[in-house]
Amino acid sequence: MEKQSNKKVFWYILFAVITVVLCYLFLVVYLYFISPYNISLKLTFWPFQTTGSMGNLYMDSVVEIKFQANEDLDVVEKSVVGVNVREDGFIVAEYDELRSMVQDSNIIINTNSGKIYNGKLLYGDMNYNICILKCENREGDEGSVKIPFVKLKTL
């Protein structure tokens, strides 16, 4: 009787372990293929990556910001790099790079995936050297902003 009891316990434990592993793998597959935009959450649930592949994940949240700027009494096209920090498209960039922007300049945001969005400057602070831009859909585009993002954590 004791042998049969031990077999039942073994099978219950094996079933529980397999269930936990399958649930974990489903979560990883969900984050990588179904909801691929939250980079920080991906790395939380699947930290088994090389430094290079982690860097490639973070590079997906980097965008190029193009605008017109005043330089030596001439208007030139400039570009700056920024990072998307929210799911709905808030970009953080250096204020030093953007302070020469023409007042009514059209801001264009290019993503690594090839999508193009309009940008709107929301905030800029010279003391902290930070500015925040909001991504908006271009005319004729439907849907929400879809750019991979990195969550900022408080210290």
SSE topology:
Layout: H1 2-34, H2 39-45, H3 51-59, E1 62-71, E2 74-84, E3 90-93, H4 95-98, E4 107-110, E5 116-125, E6 130-136
Antiparallel strand pairs: 1-2, 1-4, 2-3, 3-6, 4-5, 5-6
Overview of the structural elements:
34% of the residues lie in helices and 30% in strands. It has helices at 2-34, 39-45, 51-59, 95-98; strands at 62-71, 74-84, 90-93, 107-110, 116-125, 130-136. It is of the alpha+beta class. The termini are far apart.
What's a quick, concise take on this entry?
By secondary structure, this protein is α+β, with helices and mostly antiparallel strands.
Strand order, biggest sheet?
1-2-3-6-5-4
Mean pLDDT: 83
Termini, distance in Å?
58 Å
Task: Tell me the β content.
Answer: 25-35%
Order of helices and strands: HHHEEEHEEE
Major sheet:
6 strands, antiparallel, barrel
Please work out how many helical segments DSSP would assign. 4
Which residues sit in consecutive blocks of at least 5 with pLDDT less than 50? none
Helix content: 25-40%
Shape: elongated
Radius of gyration: 23 Å
Count of DSSP E strands?
Answer: 6
Instruction: Specify the structural class.
Output: alpha+beta
Which properties best describe this structure?
155 residues, alpha+beta, six-stranded antiparallel barrel, 4 helices, 6 strands, elongated
